[in-house]
Amino acid sequence: MSDAGLVVVRRDRVGGLLLQALLPIALVVMVLGFAVVDASVLSPANLLNIAQQTSYLALFAMAQTVVILTRGFDLALGPTVSMVSVGTALAMATTTATGHGTATVLLAGFGAGFGLGIACGAFNGVVIALLGVSPFVATLGSYNVAIGIATTLSAGRPVQGVPKLFSQLFYGGSVLGVPAAIAITVVIGAALHLMLGRTVFGRSLYIIGTNPRAATVAGLPVRRILVATYVLSSTLSALGAIMMTARTGSGEPNLGGALSLQAIAAAVVGGTSLAGGRGGVGTAVLGALFITILSNGMNLTRIDGYVQMVVLGAIVILGVLLDQARLERH
Amino acid sequence: MSTAVAASSSRPGLDLRSLAVRIGFLPALLIAVVAGMSAIDPQFYGTINILNILRNASFLAIVACGQALVIVAGGFDLSVGAVVALASVVMAKTMAATAHALPGQTTPIIVCGVAAGLGSGLAVGLVNGLCVAKLKVSGFVVTLGTMSATAGVGLMITSGIPVYGMPDVFVKGFGRAQLFGLPTAVYIALAVILVMVFVQRRTLFGRYVYAIGGNVEAAIVSGVSIQRHVVGTYAVSGLLAALTGILLTAQVGSGQASFGGDRMMLQSIAAAVIGGVSLRGGIGRIEIVSVSALFLTILGNALNLLHIDSRLQPVFLGIIMVAAVALDELSRRRRTQRV
Amino acid sequence: MEGSTDSTPVEPLLALRGISKRFTGVQALAKVDLDVRAGELHVLFGENGAGKSTLINVVAGTYWPDEGTFRFGGEDIHHLPPQRARAIGISPVFQEFSLVPSLTVEENLFLGREAASGGILRVGEMRKRARALIDELGFDLDPGSRVDDLSRAHQQMAEIAKALLGRVRLLILDEPTASLTERETGRLFELIERLKRQNVGLIYVSHRMREIRALADRVSVLRDGRLIKTLDAAACTDGDLVELMTGRKIDLLYPVITHKPDRIAVDVENLTLVDGSVREVNFYAQSGEITGIAGLVGCGKSELIRAIYGLEPIAAGLIRIDGVPYEHPAPRQSLKHGIAYFPANRVAEGLALSRPVRENASMTALDLDSFAQFGVLRPGAERAAIALIMDQLKLKPPNIERIAGALSGGNRQKVMLGRALTRELTVFLFDEPSVGIDVGAKLEVYQFMKRLVEADAAVIVVSSELPEVLALSNRLYVMHHGRIATELKGEARTEQNVLASFFKEHLTAEVA
């Protein structure tokens, strides 16, 4: 019995490892596949391009992951991004127009952007944790509210008047030769990774997601942590939104578009479990990388954009099936 | 189970009050909006506006009926908006193709087109249902995937360009026609609502949907086949979304991949949730969901007439939805604490 | 073996041979034989965890046994999903109700076997049949009311009515009287007599001697997953049954605890809970002693200690900890006040199963400087502290990085106990401490309590297992219908007295 048990365990572990490694392997195979069709996929310029594109989605996937860890999700992420973009641009345009110095302008922009993001997160957190509304309905509510605010503030048009310097710093700029977007995402990702693994707050997220009732019985301040989680998530989204605003050079009321679902898809494909308690910065980045490379490769190999949507949909379902298989192993 | 354990014998008075709270809140709000708007703006009760409201409410109500059924069984259908678009373009394409093959024969053209449209919706619904029931993947993720895929297929078929070539009879004689002064879509929506109410109250399927959403363990122990009925709810939802796609197409006169979309999906969920369908499953009635769909349509119309920026309108929808669910949750908590 | 000596010419209705069932780490049933004849009431008797509930779940088709043969109505059964069990006439009434809360009583009665033609329900016919059945049973139950509006007693009636709808050949009743009043219990007994006359076989799980005396034809005693003996009810005494159940190993199993009652650590005055499960309860617990609370399922004993810890909302009353009023209890505050709670359901309320033992054990101590400073964890210190604690508690295997879900019931309880050693605590609330764990682990839990008490902690043990609370406690409260029925001290702590206090309560209920 014990021998047979050991063998089973060993085979299980090998299978488990295979499942864990499946996504990186798929990534490599995919890149090589695209490279066969079009060698420019592997060009340094394209690789840098991929890294830069990934850095935005990775941030949003991280924002989504922290709430998914607690068995929630944030449907309002996309509209929050739009709202923050418009708010940031508007604040900077107004302060520029009234003749303030660049420091004040940037400060106003960041203040408005993060302020809106935090407000949205606080709304989600309070409605979910204190009023007991399901994350789905609560963030669907703030989805609508944020869309309304974004389009009203901008009157539905891009907000111009963002100072050049802002774009130069946060899109054109670089740290030690690394483009700003990548540098920021790496720093934030590392910080978040430490936070999840090394702080009481991070530990609490995993425990709440695994068994919320046990967390309550063990005396964790579950409601407070949940509110903080949604605020953290929206703050990350706001950061991503500000970076994307720097890229476009204007406040875009449609910037968020399908980002909510894309970020959920990235998190899930990367291996974050919607059942809560499993995932992290690694899964978020991996998922974002996968989806970015997939669409980049399909773009370069001139696969129709509509076909890409179908592929993305299929990938999401496949990702969850894999997650299911992994869960059953546990 | 704590909800089940608490609460002692029910007094009829209490029941009546909770009944009034549950059903009364929405019609009361509806009447208030209607009365207020009628007083403010005579345009509101103009024939054109009323017909417009009824037509739009019909489209939403049909989709919301399917959505509500899925949610009552404990699921979610994010793909309904995309199905509306898919059914629209599939039907229009099929009609155009059959018209090419059998010029002038309107009946087979229409039959083929409608069947193809409904079939495409049913197919998406079946995929959703089978993935949820057989592969045990959460409805949220499955329909998130099929939503993207379905929208993609719709766009692929048309390259994003409207599809023309439907028989005139279908558009003028059906889509834009009126019967006793009301658009055909209204009659179809009423028929759907009546059938669905009947299904919920008087059929095995409806009963089992409630049981599965209410307590899946109890349903299994009682010998209810779970998978078949879960697949059924998604199939009905897909079918009804396709029906809306067909009605919209017939009214507009062309198949468009831009129909439905996220907006229709979100509104259908909002209608269900405001109409008292619990996301925990097991609770929710089609007739109230239909009233809720009407309410949402009237609200949008009223905000338009009041010249409230259309961009600001989602804010109202969002707040009303969260408030409705929060109220429901609070009353549920009070219920469990009642001695 | 017992069956063959007793065997009547007719084959028994139900014949189980050599039934075994294993769950992760626990042998729930080992080679159990059971015969139930048509028209007989067969009592299953045994302590909690003896295997009774696994056995009835096997009969009802919820679990399929790992080995053994299953014959019902003279036919070998090789596959028995719950719906098939019901179709062939096996109807279970469990303590966890199989009702859908959002449906009405009538809809629940017919769930899965509605009267319908072509998929369309025949509502009128079902209403008539439901009324007829409820009238026949003599229950005071409205078929039109929603189940989540009903009291526990009424839900129990609905459950019994559900089991009796249709053709029943074998009825399984799991402590059916636990939440019924005396009058309703009387009705149930009449009903059981009627069913026996109609040749229905019954399996009846109960702890209550009086019911066994009144109803049983035969009694099967289970202990630690084994069938000890099947006896004729008429030919055995209460003493025989208790002895068989406990197996005369009381002295061996329970450690000798020296109680030295000291200051009053917990003092509860007129406590009433919002949900009414506890009403006007007064009691106290001293440091240096184990205070026991006994009572039947649903009597409010768990809710009482959960309220002290802050898990149940309080309507009125006062709790004092070390003489200081403790208002608005909440788990976090309770831990800071030195109160720990060990939940009965360790899967639902205790452990995060997919997280490692280490994280589960340190869960209640993350606010301490020794585990985290300024919100940053100290992984090294945590690992060292938890490893030491789990070593003391003899965790098997001694690997604190294993996920908690991979552990057996006993080791899971040890992880819970480990939490208590991570911080300074003075009051320990144990809710059904030995449910779902094997004998060896039980002993270790008892030893753990002994060490606590002898270190002058106040320990409160809530248990449905009478021998356990009797042996462990210095003073014993008995709860009934949300109130303290009696307090027993010293020599007065006997099984007889505890049972008597239930009866006394029953008598007063009857008068009222």
What report would you give on this structure?
The complex is a heterotrimer of chains A (330), B (339) and C (512). Chain A is mostly helical. Chain A has helices spanning 2-37, 44-69, 77-97, 102-130, 135-154, 164-172, 180-198, 200-210, 212-217, 222-248, 259-270, 281-300, 305-329; strands spanning 174-175, 178-179. In chain A, strand 1 (174-175) and strand 2 form a beta hairpin. The relative contact order of chain A is 0.18. Chain B has a domain at 62-286. Helices cover 77% and strands 1% of the residues of chain B. Chain B has 14 helices and two strands. In chain B, a hairpin with a 2-residue loop joins strand 1 and strand 2. Chain B is globular. Helix content of chain C is 35%, strand content 25%. Chain C is globular. The two termini of chain C are 48 Å apart. In chain C, 49% of the residues are buried.
Features:
heterotrimer, B: 339 residues, mainly alpha, two-stranded antiparallel sheet, 2 strands, 77% helix, 1% strand, globular, disordered N terminus, C: 512 residues, alpha/beta, Rossmann fold, 3 domains, six-stranded mixed sheet, 19 helices, 25% strand, disordered C terminus
Instruction: Give the CATH level 1 class of chain A.
Output: Mainly Alpha
Span of the ends, CA to CA of chain A: 20 Å
- Helical/strand content category of chain A: mainly alpha
Helix content of chain A: over 70%
Shape of chain B: globular
Low-confidence stretches of chain B: 1-16
Biggest sheet of chain B: strands side by side, in what order? 1-2
Using DSSP, what is the number of strands of chain B?
Answer: 2
